[in-house]
Amino acid sequence: MAPRKNKQEPKAQKKNSASAYIAGAGTVMDSPVTETLKTNFMPYAMSIIISRAIPEIDGFKPSHRKLLYTMYNMGLLNGKTIKSANIVGRTMQLNPHGDAAIYDTMVRLSEGNEALLHPFVASKGSFGKAYSRDMQCAAARYTEAKLSAISAELFADIDKDTVDFVDNYDATMKEPTLFPVTFPTILVNSNMGIAAGMASSICPFNLKEVCETTIAFIKDEDINIADTLLAPDFPIGGELLYNREETEKIYETGRGGFKIRGVYTYDKSQNCIDITEIPPTTTSEQIIEKVIDLAKAKKLTEINDIRDETDLDGLKITIDLKRGTDPDKLMKKLFKLTPLQDTFSCNFNILIASSPKVMGVKEILGEWVAFREECIRRRVYFKLSKAKDKLHLLRGMEKILVDIDKAIKIVRETEEEKEVIPNLMIGFGIDENQAEYVAEIKLRHLNREYILKRLEDISNLVSEIEEMEGILASRSKIKRIIIKELEEVIKKYGKDRKTKIISSADIQEEEMNESLELDESAVTLFFTKDGYFKKITPQSLRMSGEQKLKEGDEITQIVEADNAHELLFFTNKAQVYKSKTSDFSDAKASVLGDFVGSKLGFDEAENSVYMLATRNYSGFVIFVFDNGRISKVPLSSYVTKTNRKKLIAAYCAKFPLNTVMYFEKDCDILLKSTNGRMLLLNTASIPLKTTRDNTGIAVMTQKKGQRIFSVEEYKEGMLENDHRYRTRNLPAAGSLKAGETAKQAKLDI
What we know:
It is a single chain. 31% of the residues are buried. The protein folds into 4 domains: 60-180, Alpha-Beta Complex (Topoisomerase II, domain 5); 263-339, Gyrase A, domain 2 (2-Layer Sandwich); 367-493, Topoisomerase, domain 3, CATH 1.10.268.10; 522-745, 6 Propeller (Neuraminidase), CATH 2.120.10. Helix content is 34%, strand content 21%. It contains 20 helices and 32 strands. α7 (207-219) packs antiparallel against α16 and α13 (420-428) crosses α14 (432-439). By secondary structure, the protein is of the alpha+beta class. The strands form 10 sheets. It has a 4-stranded mixed beta sheet. Strands 10-11-13-12 form a 4-stranded antiparallel beta sheet, with helices on one face. β15 and β16 form a beta hairpin. It is elongated and about 150 Å long.
């Protein structure tokens, strides 16, 4: 039988139960958005800016620094490689963000990944490739690593108080806030990061050029950086399109971009192109996929096959060519249409005293030199303190060595061991530290040779102390030390450039003189009321029957053109979308064709109202509005220097649009109104305005409830006595047909 439940809870229990409730729990409180952002988001944003994404003046982010310092503490600067998993596990004592993130950091710093000009991690095993999306690194349990030789420059004198140390996240270890780097690593290896509201993108430069530029800057701060720091140097090579003016601007502002293109060779015997170097902003897979897409779209008809032949010797993309193809002209197409030519965007955003700052190269060098001066000053002061302490001890020994017999006598006649030090202090007038040092001298050292060596040490220490004090008192001496260290770095680790510099002016001139061959094959363009587009070749058109259309749709424009024409699609939202005839695949009469809105990415509820094909942007466009106003805009107003696909404010959006028409030269047009009246005028009477969205002029007056019904180009003979419909002054109401009344002529719309 189940025990009976107590209906009444004890008073003490009730009291405890009541105290478990939290006052105000579940209450919704209003809080200003600005206050919430300030208290919650801003600390988070500052954390990822300062502690994660933006590098500091030593060239490292915290994740890099924690990994490398752990490897240094593990003794991996010398000796053999060890398993990466072991390194990752040890690094978690400093970096609590997870083993995957730590291993990814190690991979990027490794020699095997080829992401850096001067890798800091010597690797063994598969560490993937920076230039390949699919070649991923092996798991940490399979690979091995150690610090590379150049990493010694990161830790030089780190144990001599050159930089500050702080507690790790659980206060069980100490870690450096910066590395006392002996050369400007911030400019030697690329560094990119995205924080909250800001980013950093620092391109790599040749170590030799950076060090030589730094030396020149130390000697003369007014130098032109571009004289010695020629251009970025990327690990995978490539060709940099050099423009002196743009380079100097980037060096001055810390913002801009460098154009990089791939490097190729032509194998005549195999009739193929081998691409061996690509820009650092792309991967081999992206290039291959883009070439395949272009070939499928018939924009590249010179290629038989493309494949990735990357192996242990390095990157290699092979393109098999069709017979008779000019490889140089094909590569010009590929540079223009694929990521084989790309721009590396620069944003030299660096943390200085925990504050992000975008700086030019000269300012970066100034900050690094100041940082390095402080490291050397602290190192010298550390050595000076040690030297003074040692000299102090040797001065005490010097006093005792003058009369060793007296010292021995004091020691022998002292009854208790603890009295030895005080007795020596009294007997020779030395302090406790000196007495302690003397008391520890072994009996075997009390010989003439030892005494003479110690006296010589005193003399050397005195001169060293004087020299170090002279260094601390002279900034020029500190600068000479920095220069000497930089020269040693050049001698040890300097390498030739990997990225070849070519003049962008030569490339532009070459492109102007040898423009890319355009596919000028004739085509017929069909455009429908519902926005469908078809491009049909003459051969296919001759063999085809009736054009297939969507139910209720009709063809509104048929244009004879070629594949070199550019297309402009005007929409009902006063926008124009630009494309090329070659961007569309050849079609047949039996298909609906391409829906332009989907192909070009129209906005919601946006429809095309007119298609225009041009080769040279000559002529003009007229926009006829329902209220009888007409705007005339030169087609050249739609030319853009960049490959922009969409232009806003293509025409005036204040009035409902009735008709768009394009003309090469002025001609007569016939306007018909819903009131039955017609107006004949020449387009020369409409002023040409380069502002695309101008309101135009009033041409045909419309009363309330009336609007323009149709507009068409006038041909001789379309109207009897056409002079009746012309007028000298605009706006005009137009005229009715002879014998018609206004009631008879009025259109029932």
